[in-house]
């Protein structure tokens, strides 16, 4: 931040130079200093190292390496599960995949059905009734559903997938909002790609991820995407229902960056010309 103010002070000093020459208060006095002014404008842009991802640098942050990804997500209330039961008898399969009139399931084109996890962490499955999935990941949920169906079926195949694959990203990205995920977990860079990448003002060293927990609480992570060591770590992946917030850098408040030359430069130059006109 001190560097930014130093550059602004230098810029103001350059603009004031023409007025220190009492013998020449004309427009030529400003033109004479334009080369130095352009140099100041050039160095006043956002440094490239603030914009580059995955830099090779010495980091004091210790990252935990993740070996299992999909098993880490614990189901939460209002999650949706796609469930399909298949047997050798098509009529029997249709019987268990049929949509009950008062259930929360919805038929899809590929014969998968979507069931909402209610506030008690139950799903209401046709003919098997309530199945509690509290504290379960997808594999554990599949096991519980299979156990619930065993009294009715001997040999069957069961498909269980997460249906509510989405995350929310806000702040300095080109396409903020809620976005759908193509798989159960994606990387932070895949999420940024879906959101159209960061703007030049996005604070890449201090992004925040707010992750809801199974007990209803929230955990906040700070992510530095300029550090190459983040790859494969616990902070590298985005889970369903995550909230990503990209803070703006302070240079945005000062107009420094992509619009610096059109913003501050034009304003200060106009001010200088006005002073010249009034003091002639």
UniProtKB/TrEMBL annotation:
Gene3D superfamilies, A to Z: Outer membrane lipoprotein wza domain like
Lineage: Bacteria, Pseudomonadati, Bacteroidota, Bacteroidia, Marinilabiliales
Domain Polysaccharide export protein N-terminal: 70-162
Keyword rRNA-binding tagged: no
Name of the protein in its database record: Polysaccharide export protein Wza
Keywords in alphabetical order: Membrane, Signal, Transmembrane, Transmembrane helix
GO MF term set: polysaccharide transmembrane transporter activity
Residues spanning the membrane: 260-279
InterPro entries named in the record: Poly_export, Poly_export_N
Keyword Signal: yes
Pfam families, per the entry: Poly_export
Species annotation: Saccharicrinis fermentans DSM 9555 = JCM 21142
């Amino acid at each position: 931040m001190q560097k930014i103010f130093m550059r602004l002070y230098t810029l103001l000093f350059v603009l004031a130079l023409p007025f220190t020459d009492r013998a020449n208060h004309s427009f030529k006095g400003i033109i004479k200093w334009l080369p130095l002014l352009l140099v100041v404008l050039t160095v006043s842009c956002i440094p490239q190292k603030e914009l580059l991802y995955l830099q090779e640098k010495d980091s004091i942050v210790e990252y935990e390496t993740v070996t299992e990804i999909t098993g880490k997500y614990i189901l939460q209330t209002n999650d949706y599960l796609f469930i399909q039961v298949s047997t050798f008898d098509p009529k029997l399969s249709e019987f268990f995949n049929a949509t009950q009139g008062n259930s929360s399931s919805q038929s899809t084109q590929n014969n998968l059905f979507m069931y909402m996890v209610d506030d008690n962490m139950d799903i209401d499955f046709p003919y098997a009734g309530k199945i509690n999935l509290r504290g379960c990941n997808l594999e554990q949920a599949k096991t519980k559903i299979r156990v619930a169906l065993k009294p009715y079926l001997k040999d069957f195949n069961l498909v269980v997938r997460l249906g509510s694959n989405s995350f929310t990203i806000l702040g300095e990205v080109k396409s903020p909002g809620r976005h759908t995920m193509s798989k159960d977990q994606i990387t932070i860079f895949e999420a940024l790609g879906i959101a159209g990448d960061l703007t030049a003002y996005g604070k890449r060293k201090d992004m925040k991820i707010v992750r809801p927990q199974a007990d209803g609480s929230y955990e906040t992570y700070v992510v530095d995407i300029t550090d190459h060591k983040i790859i494969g770590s616990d902070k590298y992946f985005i889970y369903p229902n995550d909230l990503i917030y990209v803070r703006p850098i302070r240079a945005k408040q000062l107009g420094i960056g992509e619009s610096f030359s059109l913003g501050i430069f034009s304003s200060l130059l106009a001010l200088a010309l006005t002073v010249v006109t009034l003091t002639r």
